[in-house]
Amino acid sequence: MDADHEGHPRSGGAHGRHRTLGERWSAFTASPFLPAIVLTFILAAAAGLFAGSYTYNMANPTPHRIPAAAVGPTGTANATAFVKGMEKALNGSLELRRFPSDAAARRGVEEQEVFAILTFHTDRVDFAVAGAAGASVAQLLTETALPVAEAVGIPVRISDVKPLQKGDPRGLALFYVSLAAVIVGLVGAIQLNVQASELNPGERIAFTLAYSLLGAFAIASVVDWWLGALRLPFVESWLILALTMFTSGMVFTMFNTLMGRWAMLPTWGLLVLLGNPSSGGAVSWPLLPSVLGHIGRWLPPGASINANHTAVYFGGAQHVFPFAVLAGWAFVSIAVFWIWRRRHPGGREHTPAHAGADPGSGAGSGAGSGAGAGAM
């Protein structure tokens, strides 16, 4: 080895020269620092978007179109004055639908076609809200009807024909129940990917279903049997929550197949940033921005709340639509995952034994080659 006049070896070769800008950038992109920096900015943006989405949708709910049943003569002076007063106070958002009788209007409430019933008499107006159809809507209508009646000089009698359960006076329990199912469903899929990454596709789907059934049972039993906050139609609510958890888990698995380690971005955006605020659980759909109110029905959180809300309060008028939405998301997610399952980062690899190798040493040689590849 060549040495300088002081006896120290001279630096030379690739290790002795300064790396080019391109080489430094390549080393940086191959290091863990690039994804860590990107993730830092993503988390900051997600925090702002999370707060903004909920604040935008829930902090100042504004009525856009509130369907209400109208029974009795609507052309009288009293009826006309009261309706105009309500429309002015609600910015023209009260949509009256004529019903031939109170019984027919009650059926409209049960079918969740209307949020209130206005029965017009010659000397007064009976204003019946439906708290279970939407607590925020019922509160808005009640707070609006009293001053309007006083302003136009018409007596009004307010009642609640479909009240909320006593353990849920503000109507938020079902929102939090569905929120728990959505969050735990996607977190469960993330943890399966981290803690049980070697699960094969069929096994991953089976375990997603297993934790969904068990987790949904835990949610329903705590809310109903332990806390007594809601009296649930237990089996129906349990299965709705299980389908919600399973769908959320498979949505993450689908995006994980398509996008790898960045799968949390579209999953969180779809289910949490967009899906939960627009679900109609905390603020009823008529009070949400109109576009979000329509979108929310087609996303898993909104479908879950819609199905469970109907099961708890309007059991005789359950609809197919929310179940179709949940099943549709689950089916598409499973199909995408299964078709492109080889792109998914998990699963066990089956390496064939080398030709001519000793059959008894196949496992050892495979493990050795794998370890060597990982170390290189």
Overall, the morphology is elongated
Q: What fraction strand?
A: 5-15%
Mean pLDDT: 82
Q: Mind telling me the C-alpha Rg?
A: 30 Å
The number of helical segments is 13
Alpha-carbon distance between the termini? 29 Å
Order of helices and strands: HHEHEHEEHEHHHHHHHH
Task: Tell me the structural class.
Answer: alpha/beta
Spatially, the strands of the biggest sheet line up as 2-1-3-4-5
Number of strands: 5
Largest sheet: 5 strands, mixed
Helix content: 55-70%
Residue stretches low in confidence (pLDDT < 50, at least 5 long) are: 350-376
Report on this model:
With 376 residues, this protein is an alpha/beta fold. 58% of the residues lie in helices and 7% in strands. The protein is built from 13 helices and five strands. A five-stranded mixed β-sheet has the order 2-1-3-4-5, sandwiched between helices. The radius of gyration is 30 Å and the shape is elongated. The two termini are 29 Å apart. The relative contact order is 0.10.
